[in-house]
Amino acid sequence: MNTEQSTAFQLELFESLPNKPYCTDELGVTFIRSKTTAISKKYLQVNQPCVTTYLVFDVDRNGAVLAWYDNNLPAPYWTSKNPENGHAHIVYRLKVPFCTSDIAHLEPIRYAAAIQSALVQRLKADRGYAGLLTKNPCHPHWQNQCWTEHEYTLDELADYLDLRGHPLKGHESIGLGRNCELFDNVRHWAYKAIRQYWAPSYKRKWNEAVYKHVEALNYGFISPLPVSEVKSIAKSIANWTYREFTPAKFRQSQAKKGSKGGKAGSKEDKAKAGRISKGGGRPRSHDPLLLESIVSKKALGLSNRGIADDLNISPSTVSKYLKIPLE
């Protein structure tokens, strides 16, 4: 980069940094400092808390700086090379940053996690890299290069990749895949677990229970998510279930089920008595609470497949419920 390009790059990066990024000159000893201080450190946090703007990959081998070129991948925003061993960080900038701790918008997180996982595989990058700190592209210790100013959409990156089998699940989850894994496991637990906490002023205890559950599962990853991410994911799940799975809604759902069950039983009795034709069948019932969740997610723009994954039901069930008129 020439002087003019370098200055513009530094200003743009500075503007996108968190207000108080993690930073350090020595890995293993991390500090939280102002942007003006952090920008002078060898390593710093470039993504906002719980918002992904940059996809960062740690390639630990000589010649790493051109791993993207060797594997027929698009040019990254920048690379930062360690002059001592040739290892490098490769960084792509997203055109549309997205929140990584919002249960109502799991689809883009899941999609980005698959892309990130596939890129790690293609680049042969370090799967244990936590992603919190990256080599500071403004620090003179590294050999820094800006390759393109293009900001990629997720679809553009996906065009270069085979996403089948990504993201990896369970203990091998990495990067954004950890967010998806925590969301999927904890929210399914929360749908039923919240009933045990229904009581006057139960929200605080419920929030604490969800956080402990997220925290426990997070420790099962090779590289756990930072505490800030754990707190945000727990808060999102706790608030969503607190709002959507209330005692009032549960009673309403049970009452409707009982009412429809009673009507069906009455018709069956009449059928046995010969007062209606045997062709009369029991009306197909549905869960009003599930219907409400499906409709609300559809209104947020999720696909039927995305809604099915979120609620752990089949896409055909989603299609059937969407045909039911709202009362």
Provide a quick synopsis of the model.
This protein is an alpha+beta fold and 327 residues long.
State the end-to-end distance. Answer: 62 Å
Beta-strand percent range: 5-15%
Helix content: 40-55%
Major sheet characteristics: 4 strands, antiparallel
Tell me the count of domains: 3
Which secondary structure elements does this structure contain, and how are they paired or packed?
Blueprint: H1 3-16, E1 22-24, E2 31-32, H2 35-38, E3 43-44, E4 51-59, H3 67-70, E5 78-81, E6 88-99, H4 106-123, E7 134-135, E8 143-146, H5 154-158, H6 176-193, H7 203-218, H8 227-244, H9 247-272, H10 288-299, H11 304-311, H12 315-322
Antiparallel strand pairs: 1-2, 1-3, 3-7, 4-6, 5-6, 5-8
Helix pairs in contact: 4-6, 6-7, 6-8, 7-8, 11-12
Please give a structural write-up:
By secondary structure, the chain is of the alpha+beta class. The protein folds into 3 domains: 3-167, no CATH class; 176-244, Endonuclease III, domain 1, CATH 1.10.340; 246-258 and 286-327. Helix content is 46%, strand content 12%. It has 12 helices and 8 strands. It has a 4-stranded antiparallel sheet, with no helix packed on it. The chain has a 4-stranded antiparallel sheet with strand order 4-6-5-8, covered by helices on one side. A hairpin with a 6-residue loop joins β5 (78-81) and β6. α4 (106-123) packs antiparallel against α6 (176-193), α6 crosses α7 and α11 packs across α12. The longest helix has 26 residues, at 247-272. The protein is elongated, with a radius of gyration of 25 Å. The N and C termini lie far apart (62 Å). The relative contact order is 0.10. Mean pLDDT is 86; it is low at 272-283.
